[in-house]
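User: I'll paste a sequence; please echo it back and then give the predicted structure.

Assistant: Echoing your sequence first, then the prediction.
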Amino acid sequence: MQTVVESMKAKAVARLEFPSEKNSEIIYKTLMPEIEKPATRRSKASLERKKRFLILKIEALDTVALRATLNTYLRWINSLLGILKVLENAS
């Protein structure tokens, strides 16, 4: 059996600024398990943190997988920001 390794053809980079370094750190640490063990082989993501910024890089076999992966990460980040806001308001 021959294994065909396809190169990633579609790429996206998102540079996201957060209200504080603490928020970027929390979101970074929360997303790292997903980055380290992706759910699919059709795409892969990497995440880098620079103070208040996160740099999300996604590579995928095609634009469909790229869009799905990018949307997933952005939804997770948006949800985490919502949770952090609720927690900040509760204290």
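The chain has one domain: 10-90. The chain has a mean pLDDT of 91.
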